[in-house]
Amino acid sequence: MVVTVLISVFAHGLTAYPGANWYANRISNKQDIDDKMPEMKPVEKMAIRLPWGDT
């Protein structure tokens, strides 16, 4: 089981940077951006909820 976790961590380390760059390049391409992509839709500012704040 430990070997499986180590292989998983190693594989993630090898693929995370290239995968993130691929996704960023795809998103930065203006032709791919449209209203259907949830990550590109505007959102309202969320309220901060702190346990010690006023209610």
Automatic annotation (TrEMBL):
Superkingdom of source: Bacteria
Annotated organism of origin: Calothrix parasitica NIES-267
Full protein name: NhaP-type Na+/H+ and K+/H+ antiporter protein
